[in-house]
């Protein structure tokens, strides 16, 4: 029967019980310069990409103060403010920048306060819908960071709180302080280190937001992916994204790009319906680290 050979997937997910978004979102890291540093080479194209996201029906955009730094958030406001109703902008704090591709961690409350206030100003918002701790800082007591997140939520500066690159124990610790509504960890069809965290998030009705959802470094060498892609007249990148949509109903996708053409190609992944046989074929790629 068709029901057993062609799994369907839920098109939307509700973050925190009240923010319903399409599961195909957009990650705004790559609308910056090389090394995620400085302004983009083509500012006009970056603005076009952001405006095209909304035209396509994408209503979840993920960014961070460290993308640029500041550049990504500034461009989002330039392109989209005043924001269309229903658009959810998620940002992050907890990393600093010392140069291209350099990401020192700083989750001290003082730094996070400055980061959050800067994000609010750049995005022209009074409150961030989803504020995510970019990294747990080994130099700062985790409890102090969590107390800060709890405080700014109570102040009304943040609606919902998420975490990034955390394990189950760290999520549970955070839940003692705040309601955690999302986890953003590296995850893809061929990188499954965080499988337990994905399962825990699904059990807890938290969004799981994979970063680096397309392993661009080796994707063309992954035979099962190419095999399924040919069957669907799609690219391996599109199949890798579609697999994530089929994998778990709480996964939100945030593929990033600096070009409208690539944005539209990524978006088409939501139209690909993988069969049970396809999913079994792609399971051959599983790696847990």
From TrEMBL:
UniProt-listed SUPFAM superfamilies: NAD(P)-linked oxidoreductase (SSF51430)
Name this protein carries in UniProt: Oxidoreductase
Organism name: Pontibacter korlensis
Family annotation (Gene3D superfamilies): NADP-dependent oxidoreductase domain
Residue ranges of domain NADP-dependent oxidoreductase in the record: 23-286
GO CC terms, sorted: cytoplasm
The keyword Oxidoreductase appears for this protein: yes
Any one Gene Ontology molecular-function term assigned to this protein's record: oxidoreductase activity
UniProt cross-references to CDD domains, sorted A to Z: AKR_AKR13B1
Keyword annotations: Oxidoreductase
């Amino acid at each position: 029967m068709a029901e057993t050979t062609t799994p369907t997937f839920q098109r939307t997910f509700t973050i925190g019980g009240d923010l319903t978004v399409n599961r195909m979102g957009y990650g705004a890291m790559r609308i910056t310069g090389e090394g995620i540093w400085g302004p983009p080479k083509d500012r006009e194209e970056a603005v076009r990409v952001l405006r095209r996201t909304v035209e396509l029906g994408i209503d979840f955009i993920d960014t961070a103060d460290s993308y640029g730094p500041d550049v990504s958030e500034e461009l989002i406001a330039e392109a989209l403010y005043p924001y269309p109703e229903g658009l959810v902008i998620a940002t992050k704090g907890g990393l600093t920048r010392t140069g291209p591709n350099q990401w020192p961690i700083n989750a001290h409350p003082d730094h996070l306060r400055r980061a959050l206030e800067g994000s609010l100003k750049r995005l022209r918002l009074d409150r961030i819908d989803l504020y995510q701790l970019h990294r747990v800082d080994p130099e700062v007591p985790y409890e102090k960071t969590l107390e800060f997140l709890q405080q700014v939520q109570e102040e009304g500066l943040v609606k919902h709180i998420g975490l990034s690159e955390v394990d189950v124990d760290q999520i549970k610790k955070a839940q003692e302080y705040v309601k955690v509504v999302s986890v953003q960890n590296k995850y893809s069809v061929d990188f499954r280190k965080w499988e337990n965290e994905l399962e825990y998030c699904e059990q807890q009705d938290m969004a799981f937001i994979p970063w680096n959802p397309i392993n661009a470094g080796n994707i063309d060498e992954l035979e099962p992916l190419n095999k399924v892609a040919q069957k669907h007249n799609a690219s391996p990148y599109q199949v890798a994204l579609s697999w994530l949509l089929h994998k778990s109903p709480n996964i939100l996708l945030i593929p990033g790009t600096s070009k409208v053409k690539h944005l539209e190609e990524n978006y088409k992944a939501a139209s690909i319906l993988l069969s049970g046989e396809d999913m079994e074929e792609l399971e051959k790629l599983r790696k847990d680290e």
